[in-house]
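Kindly review this protein for my students:
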Amino acid sequence: MNDTLAQEIRRVSQITGEFKLRSGRIEHEYFDKYLFEADPNLLGRIAERMVTLIPEGTEVLAGLEMGGIPVVTMLAHFSGIPAAFVRKEAKKYGTARLAEGADIVGKRVLVVEDVVTSGGQIVQSSSDLRKLGAEIDAALCVIDRQQGGRENLARNGIGLISFLRKAELE
C-alpha cells in the first residue's frame, strides 16, 4: 500500500465526534467515506490501485447502495469490467430490479463496498444476488474497519479483499 495515498485518505476523510455505526457501535473517530468518494482525483487514484485486487475471472462488479456505487463506477472505468448497481431492496416501480446495469445471472460477481464494519450489508445483498443467479465468493472494499466483517463474511462463504485496513490509516 502506498503510505502517501493512505495518509491522504486519512487527511480527507477522518473526522471526530460521536458516530453511531450501522452495526450499532458508537465510535469517536470516523472515516467519512463520502469525503474521499466525492473527490474524483482521490477516488480515481484509489480505484486505479484497487484494480489489481480484482480476482481473475470476475465478470461483473456489483456496487452496493450507496457508498459502493461511486467506487464500483471508477473500478469499472479502470478495469473495463461491467458494473451493476445494487439496491438495498428492489424498487417497487419501473424495472422493479434489485440490481441495475450489467446482467448478473450466471456471472462471477465481485461485490464492491466502500467501508466494511460488520459486513452485514454485504451478506444480505450477496444472499439476494445469489437468489437471482449471481455467483459470489468475494467482496472488495476500500477500508476494512477490522471489527468482525471479515469473519462474518467468511461464515457466509465470502472472502474479503481490502484495499486498506483501519490500522493502516492510524
About this structure: The chain has a mean pLDDT of 93. The longest helix spans residues 68-79. DSSP finds six helices and eight strands in the chain.
